[in-house]
Amino acid sequence: MELSPDETIFWQNGFITINLTLVTTWVLMFVLVMASFLVTRKLRTDLKISRWQCILEMLVTGMNQQIKEVGLKNSEKFLSFIGTLFIFIAFANLCIIFPGYEPPTSSLSTTAALAICVFLATPLFGIAESGVLGYLKTYIEPTFIMLPFNIISEVSRTLALAVRLFGNIMSGGLIVSILLSIAPLFFPVLMTVLGLITGIIQAYIFSILATVYIAAATEESDRKNVKKKKMNKQPEILTEAKLVAK
Amino acid sequence: MNIDWFTLIAQIINFILLMWLLKRFLYKPILAAIDKRETNIKNQLLDATSQKKEATKAQDEFNQKNESFDKQKAELMQKAVSEAKVESEKLKETARNEANVLKEKLEKAFTEDQASKNNNIAKRIGDEVLNITRKTLTDLSSASLEEQTLKVLLIKLDTLNEEDKIKFAEALKEGSKPIVVQSAFELSTDQQAAIQKSVNAVLNTEATYEFVIRQELINGIEILTNGFKLSWSIYDYLESFQNEVDTGKKVEIETKSK
Asked: What InterPro entries does the annotation carry (chain B) (predicted)?
């Protein structure tokens, strides 16, 4: 029994290996991009819009809203990263309804790649928002003693991201495969439905955790902004107090 | 459960590529469309607000105009009513005056007509009465009555006062015509002689006489000379009666019309 689609190899030349994970990912990418292209080439800006445009708008604005709710104020800057994570993972997981389909997210290579992306994106966004020092400062928060723990946390959470997604999706697929051999009529359907729910939840968890990590990395910049605002507000308050005293 | 490093690197590249492609074909156009729609809605809302303001302003203006129109209308109405009242009073007065004039005219015409009718009737009655009386007296006249008439005239002649006698004499002197004796019946020679004798005695002169018969005198005799007249006849009585009747009726009618 194959545990990962990586093991299904179509073509190999030394280090370069074209396996099922990559092929499936390309197909998914093509479908997503084509669908987006087809829908967004005739976008309407009035009040009457097509169903597909409505779905995509709901998806995009929903993701944007979620990012905002987590704490990233300038959500549109992070939308393409976090949104792509969610859309790719969710779409890859939802396609399990197609018979014989093996989601690329059940490959540890894919989930690790996505986790590495998050691992790399977090400091990048943090530095972009708060500067190198500002970002590095987050490692010694709340005290300097926390530095090793913060570093371990950074690595472990990336590992956890990769393994969580891989474990959930791979186990789902594995259970369906096992059940197909035991009770091929009824239980696999139920497990697939459950797999759909799990897939969506995992996509949500992965992207929301990525958002949280990025939010934590850009926390320093938010703090600075709040301080600046307070400093700007203070003279006004003083003036008001003076006016009251007068 | 091993990690295929080529797959891992490829998936990282794939993910970055997908991120770029989706940004290019999904997020940007969708967000741009949403922004544009929001802008449109905002503009439409602004337009609607400004239009609402304009509409409110227009409505206020309209209300003000309406109020002023109403006020003007009420004033004009009041003015028209008062003018109509005055005009109506004027017309009524004119109509009343015209009616009064017409009434007066009608009353006058009616009165005149009535008077004329009454006069006609009175005249006719008087005429009828006189005719009846004349006829009756004519039927009743006889020799003895004629004699009596003559006797009355002669007595009247004899008892003539001095003033009348003078007038009679002067009238005779002024006119050189004979004394005319008119009678309703033919006088006998003796009767003519008696008249001549009495007149001559009154006048103290010998005058010439002309005897004429006039039926309408109704058993009467007249002595006429140049404006002086001495007579007795039923005709005179009737004539004076008719005069009195006419005068009396006229007076009565005038009193009634008043």
From this structure: Alt_ATP_synth_F0_bsu, ATP_synth_b/b'su_bac/chlpt, ATP_synthase_B_chain
